[in-house]
């Protein structure tokens, strides 16, 4: 895999998809964070947590585009009041229940479907962030679950976060 380009194949399992996505994030997140820090620190004063959405708008779409180029689908039908960041992360498909004010954790989920439209599992995008100032204390992380039903996804997220 070339550094910086996530390569997905149609025959990948959900676990392999999260590994490829994580290696992309690992190679890109810090330089992107540093290059945007001043702008997003100023934005945070005005729009608070939405500044993290601006960051994810830069970091995440490439992963989803590469996934879709490989024949996967990561998006569900939008509802009228949906708020979407990074083109594929829907706020109603997220939880923020963990951490301190200076190191909170929001997790978004996307059910991934293959070319035939069958769910193969779910990728979870965790964004660590501060509510006190613009700060991402550690790299965003992608987890994978074999689940595709909301109740099971939420249980899976709790299992991941609470087993620490």
Question: What does it look like?
Answer:
- It is a single chain.
- This protein is α+β, with helices and mostly antiparallel strands.
- It has four helices and six strands, in the order αααββββββα.
- The two termini are 30 Å apart.
Quick overview of this protein structure:
This is DUF6022 family protein. The chain is of the alpha+beta class. It contains four helices and six strands; from the N terminus they run αααββββββα.
What are the defining features of this structure?
41% helix; 164 residues; single chain; 4 helices; two-stranded antiparallel sheet; 4-stranded antiparallel sheet; alpha+beta
Measured by DSSP, the beta-strand proportion falls in: 15-25%
Low-confidence stretches: none
Kindly, what is the distance between the CA atoms of the first and last residues, rounded to a whole number of angstroms?
Answer: 30 Å
Please provide the ordered H/E string of secondary-structure elements: HHHEEEEEEH
What's the number of extended β-strand segments?
6
Organism: Paenibacillus mendelii
Pfam families: DUF6022 (PF19486)
Protein name: DUF6022 family protein
